[in-house]
Amino acid sequence: MINRARAALRGLAMGDAFGGTWFRRRFAVDNLRPGPWRWTDDTAMAIVLLSVLEEHGTVDQDALAAGFARAYAEDPHRHYGAGMHDVLAALGQGEPWPEVTRRQFDGEGSWGNGAAMRVAPLGAFFADDPDQVPIEAVRSAQVTHAHPEAAAGAVAVALAAALNVTGGLDLSAIADRVDGTEVARGLRRVAALDTDPRKVAAMVGCGRRMSAPDTVPFALWCAARHPADLEAALWATASAGGDVDTTCAITGGVVGARTGVDALPAQWLAAAEPVS
Ligand code: 8NA
Ligand code: MG
Ligand code: MG
Ligand code: MG
């Protein structure tokens, strides 16, 4: 499954770089923009997560915390979430991750979409061991995000990537695995919809709050609509606007786990910053 995980990472990075070309533009996801397309924090953190899996075979949380902090120190200008600057600087000082993450946002912990945005390669990595996927996804979230909705978003995205590798991406089944959360409620609202992505975004959001619940159901709906066509999936995702680098990173990771990126137009492959 390591090749599927790397395919997911390339799809994620492509989505992040493609979507990021509309970063901070409120309207008009329009024609393809000229390159180079740089990826952002979504990809920086996904690279670290996959390297920890390759080295340890599991989410070693201390190694993950150290890896996130190192990547941040090396390149802090990748548009990290506002809370992550404190978190990653504190982890870099050697503060224990459980204390750092629990004190975020007045002790509530972050419900940001940052745990979900990076996790699709993990789902592909464990695709042949489905019971392990949620366990590892939660562990990967906890290092930066203490709120249960952030973990639910990560579990949902990882399961989607695992299911798409095996050919059965089913939003209702994913909702059942994160039952009782806002993420599950959003997934159930959109699971059966057959409509324009912008209408789906109007119902459950497309990341304008940068929360897991207002990001993950929309991105997974787009992936489930185009599970084997990365280009179509990314255009559908971007068309709604919002947190486009992140919605496209999620869709790109989930669809890319199945397709890889080689079928994309040569222009896209030339424009996007590579992942080594
Ligand atoms: P985070 O933990 O900072 O969460 C993201 C944001 O969600 C926070 O900055 C807060 O505004 C809000 N938030 C999270 N938890 C709470 C809470 N408990 N109470 C109140 N507000 C809360 O970082 P993250 O890693 O989860 O964020 C990922 C996002 O940031 C991604 O979109 C990523 O690309 C990046 N980013 C996005 C944009 C954008 O405009 N779309 C800009 C900069 C960074
Ligand atoms: Mg980003
Ligand atoms: Mg984060
Ligand atoms: Mg973003």
Descriptive terms for the model:
276 residues, mainly alpha, ADP-ribosylglycohydrolase fold, binds alpha-Diphosphopyridine nucleotide, binds magnesium ion
Brief write-up:
By secondary structure, this protein is mostly helical. It contains 17 helices and no strands.
In words, what does this structure look like?
Keywords: Hydrolase, Magnesium, Metal-binding. GO terms for molecular function: hydrolase activity; metal ion binding. It comes from Paractinoplanes atraurantiacus. InterPro entries: ADP-ribosylglycohydrolase, Ribosyl_crysJ1, Ribosyl_crysJ1_sf. This protein has 276 residues and is mainly α. It has one domain (1-271): ADP-ribosylation/Crystallin J1 (ADP-ribosylglycohydrolase fold), CATH 1.10.4080.10. Helix content is 63%, strand content 0%. It contains 17 helices and no strands. It has helices spanning 2-20, 41-56, 61-74, 82-92, 97-102, 104-107, 114-117, 120-125, 132-142, 148-165, 171-177, 182-190, 197-204, 216-225, 230-238, 244-259, 266-271. The radius of gyration is 16 Å and the shape is globular. It binds alpha-Diphosphopyridine nucleotide and magnesium ion (3 copies). The site of one magnesium ion has 6 residues, from helix 7.
